[in-house]
Known about the structure:
By secondary structure, the chain is α/β, with parallel strands linked by helices. It has helices spanning 3-11, 18-32, 37-42, 50-64, 69-73, 94-106, 122-130, 143-156, 197-200, 217-229, 245-254; strands spanning 75-78, 81-84, 112-116, 135-140, 161-164, 177-182, 187-188, 209-210, 230-239, 258-264, 270-276. Strands 5-4-3-6-9-11-10 form a seven-stranded mixed sheet, sandwiched between helices. Strands 1-2 form a two-stranded antiparallel ribbon. The chain has a two-stranded parallel ribbon with strand order 7-8. The chain is elongated and about 65 Å long. The relative contact order is 0.10.
Amino acid sequence: MTGVQKRIAAALEGRYDAAALECVKKALCTELLGMSQLQYYTGEPFSPDPERELMFDAALQRLGAGEPLQYVLGTARFMGLELKVDGRVLVPRPETAGLVEWVLSDCGQTGTLLDIGTGSGCIAISLSHLLPSWSVQAWDISPDALQVARENNLKCGTKVEFRQRDILSAVCSDSRFDVIVSNPPYVTESEKSLMEPVVLDYEPHLALFVPDDDALRYYRAISDFAMKSLNSGGRLYFEINPLFAHELKDMLERKGYRNVTLRSDDFGKLRYIKADTDDRKGRTDKG
């Protein structure tokens, strides 16, 4: 272990487990200090330039205070892309990559797609990148999040169209879609006590939490909108809270969706749901 690596380990002792600490050490050394992979693993002598060393010192302080590594670095990797992230948007999760992969596995050569609650743009931008013939639109209520998403769109060379929309309000769209996908807020207020401080203290609560007594509020609004805005045979995809998986499945079936399918994430938790429309457009109920 190099002197720099020892310094990181000492500064962050007790904050990370061994595997996470190794990721942090490597990221700080290679991305902030400019150390090569060879220097990192072999311990070859390395002298960072003064500017990078100042950035490194500031990063150690922020990490020591509990800030997420991705915010400290200013970037996060998602579906092979490097995205800008900061406190205006959630850090993209591996679970969300599973949602994108499900959408990809079902998509044909061309079509129209809407991402509702786009945040950093990770879903819309990765799908636009991997489905270049598709027309992709993305909505979010937060102008700050949309600013980050637009910067990521430019950075990745994708052509997502972003709009500021509140799906909980009466939303009209002049477009129709073959696919609507969303990772909406789904953590209930009572689950806060189970969450890590790194999430509670730094990530935007607007993108995370829903009231205990209305946990499906976003799913209800989005599914009602999708029933009117999806083309015949269109598909709706959600990332979900496993606690409400079967309740959400029942709700979608009551609203007239068919082939409602749940899927587990890599940890065996029911994390995703897909629903198809048919020719009976506009059927909704009070669910």
